[in-house]
Structures are given as C-alpha cells and as structure tokens.
Design brief:
The structure is a homodimer. By secondary structure, chain A is α/β, with parallel strands linked by helices. Chain A has 14 helices and 26 strands. The first copy, chain A, has an 8-stranded parallel β-sheet with strand order 3-2-1-10-7-6-5-4. In chain A, strands 16, 17, 18, 19, 21, 22 and 23 form a 7-stranded antiparallel β-sheet that branches. A 5-stranded parallel β-sheet of chain A has the order 13-12-11-14-15, covered by helices on one side. In chain A, helix 12 links the parallel strand 12 and strand 13. In chain A, helix 4 packs across helix 5 and helix 7 packs across helix 8. The first copy, chain A, is elongated, with a radius of gyration of 29 Å. The relative contact order of chain A is 0.09. Chains A, B: Belongs to the class I-like SAM-binding methyltransferase superfamily. Chains A, B: This is Protein arginine N-methyltransferase. Chains A, B: InterPro entries: Arg_MeTrfase (IPR025799), Arg_MeTrfase_PRMT5 (IPR007857), PRMT5 (IPR035075), PRMT5_C (IPR035248), PRMT5_TIM (IPR035247), SAM-dependent_MTases_sf (IPR029063), Xyl_isomerase-like_sf (IPR036237). Chains A, B: Keywords: Methyltransferase, S-adenosyl-L-methionine, Transferase.
C-alpha cells in the first residue's frame, strides 16, 4: 500500500499575484498554496498599533479566484502579529477585532481551514474568541476549521520565522502545551486542528511521538532545515526523516515553507514524497488500510446472527485458522499416543461453528496427526447451518455431525475430548466467550481440552482527540446524555499516542473448574505517564492461548503478524484528563452482569477521580 | 430567629425491641432512632466469613412498625463489618451481596435514608455498588438516600467505635478524603450525603469548616466526647461547641450516640438544643431565614417589568435607601455652598425610579441639607409610573416631574446635576447598570455626579455539592446540554465552604468619560486553596461607592449590616475540580456583548483547564 501526502502545499510569505503563485506552485508539484489572508500591500502593521486598522480596505478581492479554487488551492493565514492575549489592552482589543474580521472573510471565501500562528502558551482570550467562532451557528453548510500552527521546538531556529520571539536555550518550552491549553479551553472542539511546524532542533523522540495523538492537519517542512547531499539535492537529517515517515502512516498533508535553496522548489516535495513511500508500516497495522481511525460498533454475535459477508471476511484470515489447526494437531497428539492412533477416536466439538472453518481445520489437523476424529459442528445461526450442511455433504462426510442449537442449551449425546471455539472479540471476553463456554463445558470430558484454553484482555491509556470527537459526534441511540463515552468502539489505530505501556486486565481460563463460576471481574491498574499528555481513554487488546505454546495476539508487542481478524478497541472517558510526566494513572475496571446482560464499568481514580462510566450498563452491555 | 436541629435522634447499637427503643428515645426527647437494619439476634458475623450469609433469615419483620413509623422514627444502619473493597475476594463478594440485600430491604421498608460507615479512603468498589443503587430506576416514588458516616478524625478515640481499625497517631488521615473520593466516583450524586461523626480529637478549624460545604444530613455527637460540668451535667469542649454552633446555622439534624454517662440521655439533647439557640448568625446572613440554599434566577429588570410585590420587598430595606439619602445629602452640600443655598436649584434625575423610594429619599435629603431641588423621576415600567403619579399628587408635589420612558432613549429637557439610580444586581453590573447609565449620562452635566459613582464585582472559589446538584437538577429550558452550569443563580449562602478569600473582579465608574466606552471586560485572577477541597464554582458579590465614603456592600468582610436587598450569586462550573491545599486556582472571566445581549463567560486554567463556560452567551445572557 503506497503512502503519500494527502495534499502538498507551498507556504508563501507574500503573494501579490495569487493566480501566478498558484501556477508556480503547481509547476513545482504543489497542489495548494498557503498565503496571508490580508493582502501584503494592504497589510496592517502591528508596530503602528493602529486601533483603526479594522476599517478600510485590507484584503484582495474574492473575484481573483473561483469558489472551488479558494477551497482547494488556497489555505489562508491570519495576520501573524495578532496577539489576543497581549497585556496592552488596546492592542488586544484591536487584535480581537481583526481576528474576527479575518475569520469572517475566510468564511466568506468558503475555505476549508485557516492557519493561525501561536507564539506562546498563555492564550485564554484567544481560546474565548476561537470558541466564539467555533460555536457560531451559521445557516450555511460551510464550517471552516481553524488550524493552529505550533513549532516542534520553541527555539526560533527557523530563519524564516522572524515573527517568533527569540528565547534563550534555557527557557526552552514544551510547545505541545501551547496547543494543549487552547484545545482544552475549547473543549477539544473537532474543528480545531494542528499545523505542526518542524524546527531544525527537534525535541527528544518521546515528545515528538506525542504529536501523533493530535489532529495534525498539516506538517510544515521549512526549506531551512534541509541539508544538501552530494548531488546537491535537499535531504533531511535522520531524526527529521524518522518523524516524517511516521507522519506518512497517516498520509499527513505537507506544507513546504521558506526560500528555495536547492535549485527548484520541486526537489523538496519530491524528496518528501520519496520518504512517504519508504515509510514502513508496523506489523500490527498492516491490514488497516481504509479503516484507520474509523470507529466501529463491536459485533454482538451471540445476540445477533452474523451475515454471510462478515463470515467471508473473517474466514480469509491467513494466520488465525492455521494456528487453530496447529492447536488441534498438538492436542490430538497429546491425547492419543502413537500406539493407540489406529484404534482411538477423539470427539471434537466445534461450538459456534459458523460456516465451518474450524471444522475444516480440525479435519486437516487430524489427517496431519494421523488420528481418528468424530466432529460435532454446533451452530445457533440457522443461516450458517445451511452452509454447514452443504459442506458436510460436499466435503466433510460422515465424521461431522451438524447440530443446530445454542451451545448453552444443547443436550449433547456424548462428551467430547476437545472443545473448539472462536468466540473472542477484540477485548477478549467482550463477545461473551466465558458465558458460552461455561455452558458448553458440561459436555467436555473431565480431562478434556478447551481450545482456546485461556485469554486475557489488555489496556493502555491513550491520547487521541480524534477518537474522542468521533465518539462524541456519532449519532447513537443512547438514553444517557454521555452514553457515547460509555461504550467501546473497534478501531484501526492511526491518530493516537500511547501514554504508558500496555498492562493485562482480565483473564479467563477454560474449562472453568471453579465450584461457583463467576465471570464478574474487578481490577485496578496503575500506569505511569511517559510524557505530559491528555488522556482521552484507553485502547484495549487481547491475546489468547489456544493450546500450550500456540497463541494469538493483537497486543502490539506480541502481535500475530499477518492476522487481520481483530482491530483494537477504543474505550473513551467522558472528560479528557491531563496527566503530567511520571504521574500515576490509576484506573479501575469492572466486568459486571445481571440475568440478561454483561457489561463493563470503568473509572479513573488518579491523578484525579472521574465518575464511574456506564453505571449499571446503562449505555452499553452485551446481551446474554 | 430561633435555631434548632431539624431532627434529634438516638443511635442505638442493639435494639431487640424496636417499639420499646423508640418509646424510650421519645421519652428522652429524641424523635427518631438509628438502629442496625439486621436484627442483632440474626446478625451475620464478619469473622465467620460465611459466603452463605446472604441466605436465610436475617432481619426483623417489617410488621413491627407501621410504614410511616419506619419512615420517620427509624434510620437503619447497614451492617458495619461490610467491606466492599476487601482484598479478600470471597469476603468482598459476600459484602457486595449483603450490601445490596440490605439496601433492597431498606427500600422495601420505605425509609428516607440508610447510614453506612466508611472505614477507609480506598472505596472504588463501594462507589461502583453505590452507583448501582443510586441509578436504579424504580417505578415507585420512594428513593432512599445513602448517608455515609465519616469521623471528623481518623483516630479511633471514640470508645464506642470499636469497629474502627486502630491507627497510629502518625498515620492520621484527613477523613474528608474518604468522602470526597467516593462522591466524585459517584459524580456528586444528590442522594449521597454525609453523616458526620464528631470525634474527641478534632482536626484544626480550617479542616473542620470544610465540612460546611458538604451535604451533612446528620451530625453524630457521641456521649463519650461530653465533659461533665460542676452540676454533673454534660457539656462539650469549646472547640466542639464552636463546630456544633456552626452546624446550628443550617439546623442540621443531630444524632446522639453511645452509652448514657450523665444520668439521663435527655441531658445530651437538651444541651445541644441550647447550643443551637445560642448560635450567632453572621451579619451577612441575618436575613436569610427561609431562603438558605435555594437557588433563584437573577432578575432581569431591564428586559422584564418588575411586579408590585418585588418593589415592595426591596423598598423595605432599612439600610440601602437611607444610604442613598445620605449620598444625595452629601452631594448636594458639595455642589451648593451655603451662600447659594437659597438661590441655586439642583436638578436631580432618578433613572429607573420604580415606585419612587429614591425620589422620596432625595426630597428628604434636600430638606435635611436645606438645598433646593427639582427632580425628574424616569421609569420605563408603565405600571410603576402609575404609583409615581400618585405619589407626586399625594406627597411630592410640583418639584417632581414623572417621565415614562426608557432612560436610554429619553430626550431630556435639561441636564442634571445629580443622576441617581439603583440598577445594581448581586454581581454589580449583572442587571446592565453600565449600559443603562452610559445611555443616561448624556443628560448629566459635565461636572455632574452619578450616584452610584462606581461598583465592583467580587468572586471566590467555593465548594457546595448542594448548589451544584440544585443547579444540575433544575428544570430549565436550556438549549445547550450543560446550560444549567452556564448561568448564575442568586442564593442565600448556607451549605457552602469558601476555598479562598474573595478577590475583586470587574469595576465600573460613572460617569464614564472614556472616548470609546467599552463595557466588555476580561480578567484573570489567582486564588490559593486553603485546604484540599472540591470546587463546584464561585460565589459572587458586589460593592458600590454611592458617593465618596457612602458605600454599600454584600461582600462578607465589608457587609452593610442590616441590608437585605441582595443575596450573593452562585456561578457553577460544569465539572467539579479537586484542588490541593496551596494550589493556585487560576480563573478567567469575561463580560462580553453583542448588539442585543450582554453575558459572562468563565474558565478555570489552573490546576486544570476547564472548557470555557457559556460560549457566546449560549445559555445565559442579559437582554439589552
């Protein structure tokens, strides 16, 4: 899958003739330009502190471009000297007025988004004015985004950024806070995004990586940070390359800014395009293409019948079923010594057989192991049973018995040696595998084997303003006002930053020999924040031991390479929680049930206490 | 106004015969008893750790009392040995079951509330189970409260509390956290309340006072903390007395617990009743009786006409009008020297004259000062104008001219020397005094005087779970889902704790000589938290300088004793914010306007960032 920037733009400090500038950029391979909204000849100067600057003519006519060109070829910039938090009251008020005037004009032009430079961390009044714009309800469908430009480092080493106040190295600031403070004051508004400006000096990698949890709309690569290779062409340092290639995984749009220092401006964007293509996708994300960052509802295969399409997609997994076959093979060898191979027959029950892939795998495993088997294929979905009956007739033959029933209610004619099932969800037990297998294990022999023999869920705290907003803005039918934050979502992870390493949450073992089986769970975990960050929830994973050393995992560190059956889950929290580096994030998770339903509840207890989410399963539950 | 406990109860460890116990308590002056819900003879013991304790008979029959006696004469207690956060899993699960069983039975009895002892700070699983109960929707109207018993000190010096684990003095804990953690996990649920148990050792006064911001349902006074006076009667230490007398200001219900050590149990409650009567009400609260803790909507006298009833109430203020008279008197003396007293005539305009109290005061002041005046009484409310015309005819005579108009639109026949108005709200400018007086000052002479000449608003961060819940549960017509937290309320302060001293917010001066009048405001303030506490918003006050040293104030420190025209305001925040002692609470307030409306926005920026409240005045605004 080829990676390329969604868009490539050229940042132009002065564009007296906008059409010519767009044409020039286009000739060099850029499909849009970023220019100051105020016309350079009409630009109001901050030094005059002209309180009447708001009056009179200050902008080029909108007739210079057609509406769709304004939308797709131009990203305007607000006047860089605006300071809505200036201690000088007159200047602050003038900035406010011009800020609103420019935003209104940008809206008039119908642009997608407007870039605004941040220069400092202290921006409450800017946030107030941003809110005013973000929350204004217009009758038109156009709702421009506001893209805040933040440098990766507060050291003004980019020569072209002469508007940035020079600071000592000693007062180096973590510029992520400039963004974080504003967006929290704007309640993480979905139309507020980041324009990340690469600086020559980069902060350490951990701090840089944190930006991947933010909604980066544009990555600015200044020409001044390029080095020159032997051929005279521009190239980036290793550290810059690494970061750009990580951005490539999300096809982040790029904006090249600054003077041409390498013959032609086209060399810069060509180089970046090359980097994007070289970017390597980690194993756990190789099958995400087309699904990244899209929240999906988890399946409820116990309550709802899956459709043919769903079966077909999952049956194609190249890893999952071969590992199941592998597990059955090893179990058969363990249960039947070579000497009894000819005489003994193992009874295998595939519970939740679906359209039969585990039956097929079991037959193949038995052949490979040279052991005799008799197989029951138990399935509750009447539509899938039709497929099973076909397969029995066409392929499997008499060794397979197809049974149409709910495994929890089946009155089996005999007990089995091996109970095979694939009832696991992205969060392990979240498709009710424990409850189903507790029901099915009554027809497993005392020394029988369950495949899987155990599974575990995992969580880690994460930052993703994007997922938070996706969850917030979905139209769902929750009774409770914050219901959207009280359910889990399945998502191929793109725009996210993991605040602390993964930890194990719940574990289930089968068969369950406990005298009083209880699948409720209650666990508290402590994570340590690796950097200052804002937590928007958790990602959840699972792994499973099918049999002995045969395992499947979607935990990134132990990912089963090539497997695509499961994406991780996103578990939101209602209010984002800011955490400092080194701070303990303490969380509590419950798995609760009543007669009809099973659900999770969760709560943060440190660094500050959230309310308990999904009380009584009020917003989400798995139906038994 | 006499203060007395809402209810007086007797805490009884064992009540084999409930009717006899109630009778005994009644004979001693107690109108209810607090008893264990589980019958003592049937009590399940924690030491046996009996996982089957939940089965079988454990409670006395409900037939022993009538339904209304259960409701008014009995407060049951949950079994004190329950520990829903025990590290022992079996014991924890058993506690959970019995907890729910007992709560369900309490609900069956139709009691108002049930007492549960807390023993420790770590209670996430209890919070989860409490939520389960608090959020269960029943078809009946009975919704019992859950009253968590917390000792004022973690030292188990109350001999009768033998269930408390003994701790070293060194591990003294701030028990407020036991409560605070649970209630935050339960999202400050309105049916979760405090039973505060006085201990022999009391924490310092600052920590004790914090409890006044919590919903204290019952104050437990153990007999063991009483001293014996010369007459052999029970008495409390000065520190205990002080605290009990503060509780008296809210008529907190009292529960006496422990063995009779002073002849008769009636002596204890008599002593406490006496203390309640002796409690002194601070000046700023002397007129609160009957209004405490009830949130009211602020008036909008500019947009709506006040009713006769409202005028009548406010006209009775014994302080406000005499101070206005005083101010007019001093202004007249300053403007007209003795030598001109016979010849000069001062023009006074009373703008917003209402039913005329300021006109009357001005006439009295002129007589007192022996100066000639001509008075215009300007009023927009046509109904009040009728009263003014009556008063002119009956009392005032020709020196008063009644004008029916909006002061902002009046075309005055001459300019005045003194412009008198009473347009101030509880938060100073919140009834649009600045905008009204800016309009009216065109007919004030260049050297003329405005009474008031200035006013200032004040705020302080506060804790009051009660106000937060009142605000949350009011049925208002807000478009925005969190609109109830985006408006101000007027409230006579009772159940509240001030986290830091008052600071000044905005100031307005009249006449406003600025060339470009701008009544928008933007200010950031820093407060220092005096104790660990949970902030639920702000209280707001104002003061005003009528003329020179003539002032009115509802700021507690400078309160105009006897004045009752204004209660403070409560300004909520959407999410409670926990703050640590010594931490800086940084807040930003804006006063914003457009052509039709004026509104406030507010935001916390430290210790953590809240979203900005009331963006664009979406939930509340004053109509121009």
């Amino acid at each position: 899958m080829s990676r390329k920037p969604k868009n490539c733009g050229l940042d132009v400090a002065v564009a007296s003739n906008l059409n010519a500038t767009i044409q020039l950029a286009h000739d060099c391979g850029y499909n849009f330009v970023c220019v100051p909204l105020a016309h350079p000849m009409l630009r109001r100067d901050m030094k005059t502190r002209d309180v009447d600057a708001v009056k009179g003519r200050w902008v080029r006519t909108d007739l210079v471009l057609g509406a769709s060109e304004w939308q797709y070829r131009v990203v305007p910039r607000l006047s860089p000297w605006l300071n809505l938090d200036s201690p000088n009251e007159a200047f602050r008020k003038n900035s406010e007025e011009i800020f609103l005037q420019e935003l209104q004009f940008a809206h008039h032009l119908g642009i997608r988004g407007i870039v605004m430079d941040l220069h400092q961390r202290h921006n409450p009044n800017l946030a107030q004015c941003l809110n005013k714009r973000l929350h204004t309800e217009t009758s038109t469908y156009l709702r421009e985004e506001i893209w805040l430009q933040i440098p990766t480092s507060s050291r003004a080493t980019n020569s072209y950024r002469n508007d940035v106040i020079e600071t000592d190295d000693e007062s180096e600031e973590d510029t992520w806070h400039w963004w974080n403070d504003v967006r929290l004051m704007c309640q993480s508004h979905a139309r507020l995004m980041v324009v990340l400006e690469l600086t020559a000096d980069l902060p350490e990698e951990g701090l840089l990586d944190r930006w991947h949890g933010e909604p980066i709309e544009l990555l600015i690569v200044p020409t001044s940070i390029f080095l020159t290779n032997k051929g005279g062409f521009p190239t980036l340092s290793k550290a810059h390359q690494r970061f750009v290639m990580k951005c490539a995984l999300r096809n982040t749009a790029v904006l090249v800014s600054g003077a041409n220092r390498h013959g032609s401006l086209k060399h810069y964007i060509q180089y970046i395009r090359n980097l994007y293509q070289k970017a390597e996708v980690p194993p756990s994300r190789q099958h995400d293409a087309g699904f990244e960052d899209t929240l999906q509802m988890p399946l409820q295969p116990l309550a709802d019948h899956l459709e043919s399409f769903t079966y077909e997609v999952f049956e194609k997994d190249p890893v999952k079923y071969s590992e199941y076959g592998n597990a059955v093979y090893k179990a058969l060898l363990d249960r039947v010594p070579e000497s009894e191979a000819a005489t003994a027959t193992q009874v295998i029950m595939v519970v939740g057989a679906g359209r039969g892939p585990l039956v097929t795998q079991s037959i193949l495993a038995a052949k490979e192991a040279k052991r005799n088997v008799r197989i029951y294929a138990v399935e509750k979905n009447p539509n899938a049973v039709q497929t099973l009956l076909d397969l029995k007739k066409e392929d499997w033959g008499e060794i397979v018995t197809v049974v149409h029933t709910d495994m929890r209610k089946w009155n089996a004619p005999e007990k089995c040696d091996i109970l095979v099932s694939e009832l696991l969800g992205s969060f392990g037990d979240n498709e009710l595998s424990p409850e189903c297998l507790d029901g099915a294990q009554v027809f497993l022999k005392d020394d029988g084997i369950s495949i899987p023999s155990s599974y575990r869920s995992f969580i880690q705290p994460m930052m993703s303003m994007k997922y938070y907003n996706e969850a917030r803005n979905l139209k769902l039918n929750h009774h409770h006002p914050t219901g959207n934050f009280e359910q889990t979502y399945v998502v191929a992870l793109g725009s996210s930053y993991m605040i602390a390493p993964v930890q194990q949450l719940f574990e289930f073992v089968h068969p369950n020999k406990s005298p009083a089986i209880d699948n409720s769970r209650y666990k508290s975990l402590k994570f340590t924040a690796q950097e200052d960050s804002t937590m928007y929830g958790f990602t959840g994973y699972f792994d499973t031991t099918l049999y002995k050393d045969v395992r499947l995992s979607i935990v990134p560190e132990t990912f089963s390479v090539g497997m695509f059956s499961w994406f991780p889950v996103y578990i939101p929290i209602q209010e984002p929680i800011y955490v400092r580096k080194g701070e303990i994030i303490e969380v509590v998770f419950w798995r609760r049930h009543d007669e009809k339903r099973v659900w999770y509840e969760w709560c943060i207890t440190n660094p500050r206490i959230s309310g308990i989410h999904n009380v009584n399963g009020r917003s989400s539950a798995m139906n038994l």
